[in-house]
Amino acid sequence: MATELHPQAEELLHDLSASGVPPLYRQSVAEARDTYLELTVTDGEPEPVERVLETAFEGPNGSVPVRAYDPGDDGETPRSALVFYHGGGWVVGDLDTHDLAARALANAAGCVVVSVDYRRAPEHPFPAALEDCYGALEWFADDPDLGVAIDPGRIAVGGDSAGGTLAAGVALLARDRDGPDIARQLLAYPVTDHAFDTDSYTENASGYFITRGDMERFWNEYLEVDFDGAHPYVSPLCVSDLAGVAPATVLTAGFDPLRDEGRAYADRLENAGVPVTRLEYPDMIHGFLTMLADPEWDRAREAIDALANDLRDLGD
């Protein structure tokens, strides 16, 4: 029996359709960014975190803003940490669209979360975002002065959607460049392949929040004309050898065009001997992790808690 769409997701999709807001791929870049922000922020008070710090590091092409979330503890034990890369097709999304998710992860896992405001396409096509994200890992692993002790052996990278792609790319770069150790990579419904040839792209091409048209537009914005989409740091599924990358947590959603490529990447990692935790939400849509503005979205909270479990176990 086929899995049915969760009522919470069904209601959201109905409301979006009734609102008359056009799909992202039919909006200008500025309009799409505003639309995504409106969908993900809360009108009320966000979930409290003991300390939120706005800072920046010097990236490969200038200053890169970051927002650090410290849930607090006794201050004596070095803490685990997550360097987080927001989703949004490399084009939309920012620190504010993923503020609620970062707060929830920090509190649920009891770890410091550092959210990275990397450069976005089309103003800055590949590899700008990836190099900013890798630079954030290097900066954080070098013990920046954030007022909290971090255990260098318990640093994870992670993100959702395009942010998951960037996290996978950072894990590959860390291996290939002999960079900082990564304890785990958290990949929530990641983009892993530039191709559009999966069953989930056919089954979920439209009507489930993110569409095939949106993804085609995002890819076109992210890559310069004639750039090879099979580049290993663009499409991690195209990497010939995945051995030696960090253990992974891969989350997928059933009603998501990206479902099958996320599962395929988990398969490839396992076949390469990389430990993988799979989190599957067959009744959910793409992007549901950022729907925390509505307290009734219990599936989003469940997924945050599941991801937090792996963050709590870093280094074990």
TrEMBL record:
SUPFAM superfamilies: alpha/beta-Hydrolases (SSF53474). InterPro entries: AB_hydrolase_3, AB_hydrolase_fold, GDXG_lipolytic_enzyme. Residues 82-289 form the Alpha/beta hydrolase fold-3 domain. Pfam families: Abhydrolase_3. Keywords: Hydrolase. GO terms for molecular function: hydrolase activity. This is Alpha/beta hydrolase fold-3 domain protein. It comes from Halalkalicoccus jeotgali (strain DSM 18796 / CECT 7217 / JCM 14584 / KCTC 4019 / B3).
